[in-house]
Amino acid sequence: MTNHATRTQALQQTTTDARHEHRRSRTGAQMRQLLWWLVGGTRGGKNRLRIIRALNERPMNTNQLSNELDLNYKTVQHHLEMLTENGVLTTSGEEYGKLFFLTPKMDDNLDLLDDIAEQTDIEDEDA
Fold this sequence. Notes:
Blueprint: H1 2-40, H2 45-57, H3 62-69, H4 73-85, E1 89-92, E2 99-102, H5 104-107, H6 110-120
Antiparallel strand pairs: 1-2
Helix pairs in contact: 1-2, 1-6, 3-4
Domain HTH arsR-type: 42-118
GO molecular function: DNA-binding transcription factor activity
Region (Disordered): 1-27
C-alpha cells in the first residue's frame, strides 16, 4: 500500500509539474507574440525597448525616463501607457511621482526581448 501511495503521489507530482511547464511555455509564447507586436512590429518599438531596458536597471517615473532617454515627456507617457495596459509594466504611487517597474512576467522573459531586438536589428538603426 505504501508503495502504491508513493507511486500515485509521484505520478500526481509529475502531472502537476507538466501542467506548470505547459502554462510557462504558453505564457512564454504569448509574451513573445506580445513583445513582437509592441517592440518588433511598430514604429515606437525602439523607444519601448529603450524604456523597458531602462526600467530593468531601476524604477523611474515618467519625467525621469524622459530625461534619461532624451525623449519628449508625452512620448514617454504614451509608451508607458501602452506597456502598462499590456502587462509589461506595473506602477507604484500616484500622479507625478508614480514609479514604473517591470512586471514579474516581463522580468522572466527579458531574453525574449533581447531575441526580438537582435532579430529586427532595432538597436543598429542609428549606428
